């Protein structure tokens, strides 16, 4: 790595995808002054931060319609990175096409399979042929390169601007609540101050292979009044006997109730590691109002 790359990392944030991706948009919203580093895979984005090519990474973990983002929960525990923040991005899907094209003239639309699924009603209503691609921004780039006025793409407003396309129909997603949660990752461990408002603690753990171990590990959160807002399980090590869990709880380890709950979970686990303690995004409060 060159000295220039090291210097650039002080003002650089990595994401998976191409310029104009929704992850790119999340970077712009949270860190408007930072340079962005598009990466082909999540592994590449993690590695960019780990090696110092980038200072931060913006990684999607959940979508309100699609569920969890594949691979991320497997990569986080072994990444050597820390979660220092979260961001909720409202996904607004735009139908874009080459300059001068019209909605009436379109015959096919290109995008990621998830984005196409989230616009199923619109696509059917207008009799468009859905063409699956690896990502939304890449679809926009392809449409711009081909310049065919009968073919469009579904993606972000940022992608339309990035590739010089016209938006021929705005906000065409079927569900208004379509939202993606992102995590901000760093090499440095930066924890939220317990006195500065609500916090989220993220950790992963593997319970002991004994009867009722998960029930007992989770019991401490209930008895100490700690709210668990996320619990995911996945297999590790190629065996059906070793299940790992990924969890988000409301609260800070400095709080006595959280400390006691984590201590009890640790007792019934063969391994437990905190991945990050970070400020709760205001979106969480808005959802409850």
**What structural class is derived from the secondary structure elements?**
alpha/beta
Please mark out the parts with pLDDT under 50 across 5 or more consecutive residues, or reply none.
1-8
Cα end-to-end separation: 48 Å
Percent strand equals 25-35%
Description:
The chain is α/β, with parallel strands linked by helices and 289 residues long. The protein folds into 3 domains: 8-89 and 178-186, 3-Layer(aba) Sandwich (D-Maltodextrin-Binding Protein, domain 2); 94-169, Periplasmic binding protein-like II (D-Maltodextrin-Binding Protein, domain 2), CATH 3.40.190.10; 199-288, Alpha-Beta Plaits, CATH 3.30.70.260. The protein has 11 helices and 15 strands. It has helices spanning 3-9, 22-30, 42-51, 72-75, 113-118, 120-125, 136-146, 157-162, 213-223, 256-267, 282-288, and strands at 12-16, 35-39, 56-63, 67-68, 82-90, 94-97, 108-112, 129-133, 151-155, 166-169, 179-186, 199-207, 228-235, 243-250, 269-279. The strands form 3 sheets. Strands 1, 2, 3, 4, 5 and 11 form a 6-stranded mixed β-sheet that branches. Strands 8-7-9-6-10 form a 5-stranded mixed β-sheet. Helix 9 packs antiparallel against helix 10. Residues 1-8 have low confidence and may be disordered.
């Amino acid at each position: 790595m060159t000295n220039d790359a090291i210097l650039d990392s002080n003002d650089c944030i990595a994401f998976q995808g191409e310029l104009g991706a929704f992850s790119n948009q999340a970077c712009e919203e949270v860190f408007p002054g930072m340079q962005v580093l598009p990466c082909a895979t999540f592994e590449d984005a993690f590695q960019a931060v780990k090696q110092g090519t980038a200072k931060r990474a913006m990684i999607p973990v959940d979508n309100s319609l699609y569920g969890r983002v594949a691979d991320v929960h497997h990569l986080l525990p072994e990444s050597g990175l820390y979660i220092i923040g979260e961001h909720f991005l409202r996904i607004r899907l735009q139908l874009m096409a080459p300059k001068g094209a019209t909605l009436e003239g379109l015959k096919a639309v290109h995008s990621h399979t998830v984005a196409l699924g989230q616009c199923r009603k619109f696509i059917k209503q207008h009799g468009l042929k859905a063409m699956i691609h690896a990502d939304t921004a890449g679809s926009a780039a392809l449409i711009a390169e081909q310049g065919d006025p009968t073919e469009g793409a579904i993606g972000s407003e940022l992608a339309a601007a990035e590739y010089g396309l016209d938006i021929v129909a705005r906000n065409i997603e079927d569900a208004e609540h379509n939202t993606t949660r992102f995590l901000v990752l760093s090499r440095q461990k930066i924890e939220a101050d317990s006195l500065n408002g609500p916090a989220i603690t993220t950790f992963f753990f593997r319970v002991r292979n004994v009867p009722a171990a998960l029930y007992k590990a989770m019991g401490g959160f209930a008895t100490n009044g700690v709210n668990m807002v996320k619990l995911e399980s996945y297999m590790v090590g190629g065996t059906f006997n070793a299940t790992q869990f990924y969890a988000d709880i409301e609260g800070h380890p400095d709080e006595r109730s959280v400390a006691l709950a984590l201590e009890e979970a640790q007792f019934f686990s063969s391994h437990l590691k905190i991945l990050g303690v970070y400020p709760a995004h205001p979106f969480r409060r808005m959802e409850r109002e």
